[in-house]
Amino acid sequence: MIRLFVALDFPADVRERLAGLAGGVPGARWTEAGNLHLTLRFIGEVPDDTAHDIDAALSEIAAPGFDLVLDGVGMYGSARNARVLWAGVERSEALSHLQSKVESALVRCGLPPEERKFSPHVTLARLKDAPKDRLGRFLEDRGLFRAGPMRIDHFTLYRSHLGKGGAVYEALREYGLS
To answer: Would you call 119 helix, strand, or coil by DSSP?
Structure first.
């Protein structure tokens, strides 16, 4: 079995700017700079032969490249029970179009459709018992964060290796955008 997801990666300077947002929130497990990405579709564990089918389906996707802007920060969950801090993404029809094509390709491979609505973001940290006042200060201090525009000319199939120190992501293949 192999654990997969499809994502957009970012140039090193953008990853460093995102990583620079970290800090000031007790109970936060910050995402390492090298692991920062925008997930188009989490696939999960699949047999190796299904992984080959996924690769073939993704290689058939034809979509244009586009510019992407990261914009603002937020959290999932309530202030009392926040679970994730994230960087937002400026609305992009091209991003939605690409995500829809990825979703369709994966469903054609026999994967069940994603039930959740696509909500583009970059996970900055996972939270456990973070103090409300510190969350509020984080969101206020970093609310004007903006990065880009950056040119998106490919998307990537990743393998996720789970371990005691957290997940390690391995890029398996990049798929170019025209």
So the answer is: coil
Residue 43, burial from CB neighbour count under 10 angstroms (0-12, 13-18, 19+)? buried
For residue 15, the model assigns a pLDDT of: 97
Q: Please give the Cα distance from 35 to 123 (Å, whole number).
A: 9
Instruction: Please answer whether residues 162 and 3 qualify as being in contact, where contact means their C-beta atoms are separated by less than 8 angstroms.
Output: yes
Strands 154-161 and 2-8: antiparallel
**Cα 156 to Cα 88: distance, rounded to the nearest angstrom:** 20
153: pLDDT confidence band, cut at 50, 70 and 90? very high
Q: Is the C-alpha dihedral spanning 91, 92, 97, 99 positive or negative?
A: negative
- Strand runs labelled E in 53-99: 66-76, 84-89
CA torsion, ordered 11, 174, 124, 167, to nearest 10 deg:
-130
- Write the DSSP symbol of residue 118: P
- Whether pTM > 0.85 for this model: the answer is yes
Angle, helices 48-59/93-108, rounded to nearest 10 degrees: 140
Q: Which amino acid is at 174?
A: E
Q: For the chain, first and last CA: distance in Å?
A: 32
